[in-house]
Task: structure prediction
Amino acid sequence: MALVLQAYTFAQQYVASCLHPTPTKSPMGLKLGVISTAQINPAAIIHPAETHPDVILHGIASRDINVAKQAAQKYHFKKAYGSYQDLLDDPDIDIVYISTPNGMHYEWAAKSLKAGKHVLCEKPFTSNADEAHRLVELAKERNLVCEEAFHWQFHPAAHLFREILDSRKHGRVLRTSAVMTASPGVPDGDIRWQYELAGGSSMDMTYALSFTRFAVHGSNLKEIQSAVARPYAHDMRVDEAMHSLLLFEDPSDGHLIQSRIYTDMARQWAIKKILPRIWELPSIEVETDKAIIYFYNAMMPHLYHYISITDKMTGKTKYEKQYQGGPCWGEAWTTGGKGGKSYWSTYRYQLEAFTEKVRGKNVPYWISGEESIAQMEAIDAIYKAAGLPVRPSLASLATKA
Ligand SMILES: NC(=O)C1=CN([C@@H]2O[C@H](COP(=O)(O)OP(=O)(O)OC[C@H]3O[C@@H](n4cnc5c(N)ncnc54)[C@H](OP(=O)(O)O)[C@@H]3O)[C@@H](O)[C@H]2O)C=CC1
Ligand SMILES: O=C1OC[C@@H](O)[C@H](O)[C@H]1O
Result:
């Protein structure tokens, strides 16, 4: 279903770009280089960049020059490169977006930083926490921006959700349950099934953990109470699905929060071969002292979302939504005016913050390196608790070979 959402995002952004005029590009705009010709590129970076006055589609790299040339022609990049390193050797490029398989994020993000480029790196940030530490350290040393592309966190709806929880209007957070599944499942041969490329549902569907950590933010992960993987039949090291129970501690009063996380790259259909679970979008439910709060489609709220709040005492439910402005962006002046635009995708809001950060300005919201490290530490801990190996670093695999 997530693939369907991506296609829908692509279509939505395409229509939006026809309906809304392309802005005049600043002659001093940041020159963007894209590493890989991944299928996510149009939705995650190319269309958002098209509508951003301060970003210029400069170059795209592929392991195959012909593939790079085709992509450059299709999306109007000025240049195409037949290797990722060639792109990094171009001194004109200011910012780099990395959409390689997970296991290559660290290598190319580190090489980009060493080449003096700011980095927007796809999720999950790295293969493991050790790599995340090293990358964050490197970015600090070089005084460059290096961000994990957790686009959903930039959307106004995410901040409405957080404000509802943080206000404590409904009491403390007691329990959370986050889900991300694929039904129809991820196709065979996909990068997500490959252990060496840091595949697995906990890695790919890292959103469920991200929703959770966002909801309980500030709380410390105390322990993994339980983690059970359903292994992939062709490689037992890859978690086709993962069920985990995490325990967080809220430092303000020491109360405990139990968090269920369920990811599944091959979710059983509702009716076999007839009806996949297309309605089961990545979402999170939060129980507080007084209410049950549910954020439906937290991953791609720009397409559709709601936040429902059901009062435990009265049983009454009220619904909220936020497509622009709101607690985070409401007072912010953006390249789309005050509060952003209602048709902006999560990726467009993300790019807005990323470019402002690169420009050294204050941004309405940011994902720190420490945040990405904590996220990777939690993933490592889940793998260990489930008895599976932490995803390997490519460099360590090369040494073993
Ligand atoms: N933010 C979001 O919403 C999404 C993020 N993602 C993330 O983006 C990344 C890419 O995902 P996705 O678009 O599905 O990936 P794809 O499989 O479509 O693309 C991956 C690209 O990586 C390059 N590549 C380099 N080495 C390999 C290799 N050994 N095997 C396969 N490809 C290789 C290829 O580009 P080339 O041939 O040009 O070198 C390929 O096109 C992942 O990290 C994923 O987690 C994915 C989907 C959504
Ligand atoms: O980031 C993602 O979002 C959408 C999903 O289809 C995909 O598996 C994942 O990589």
The first helix runs from residue 2 to 19. The chain has a mean pLDDT of 95.
